[in-house]
User: Fold this.
Amino acid sequence: MIWVEVLSRHRDIAARFRIAAPEARIGRGYDNDVIIDDPYVAAQHLRVFRDEAGQLVAEDLGSANGTFLDGGRNRLARIVVDGKQPIRIGQTWLRIREIHHEVEPERVAPPEWQTLPIAAVAALGASLLGLSALQIWLAQTAELRASSYLTPLLWIVATILVWAGVWALLSRIFSGSSHLLRNLLITLAGGLAFSLYHEFARVFAFAWTWSGASTYQYVATWSILAAMCFLHLREVGRTRLKLKGAIVVALLVTAIAFQTLQRSEAFSDYGRQYTTHQLMPPAFRAVQLSEQNVFFGEIANLKTRLDSDRVHARPNETIQ
Assistant:
């Protein structure tokens, strides 16, 4: 008894054939035991039989495109089948097993609604909305209105649901399961990470006059977005994770480089990079304010340096 399994590109079983004969023939022709609808597979491509030692052997029947083992690049005339490593003919993956092949023990099915993921989604969602409401309150300079809070928060909720829904749909299409809770957790965690970084960057810039985190906030934003995309892609399919990671990193580097170039050109055109200033409560100020005479003294020193730079920049001109 021989079992031949045709695998999908994600190595899932697409079809399974039971061969009661002592050997099986695989190919595109209709005289085979297993017919493969692949234009790169020969009419008679593969023969599976038992050798003198009783082992299952897959033998290439002189095909033009050859037979390969588990992603290898070397064409093989004969392959001893172990039931684990897939075999590639043309662009089709096969797995050949005996009737006595041992399978893994059954998995214990988790409950349909797990308490921990739901609690994590609720906690992350509440934290994100609470932090967003705090940011709106800190930036509030006019009369307090309910719409000032409800409109941004509703936009945040809608964005999260749409983003997670799109990835859940892709997971459903390519892996057969939407993984809605996992995709929602990834989305909420990424949104919370971005909000925390944005808020702490503003606080640091105001409290300690340290603008580095705000200046390079776009790097953190792209990095968080890239991490979210990679985790979503892992839920879509857990195969070729290194390739997916390399693509995400390449896009991340490209995006950061492009925005860095834009900011550099803006600095050369306008003399400074575009920044957004927002007033914060004076209690957030951690660095002691300068005295009035110290402030005007620094201004005088700055004026002296600027005048000196003008003189050195125009040595041949007469200073009026």
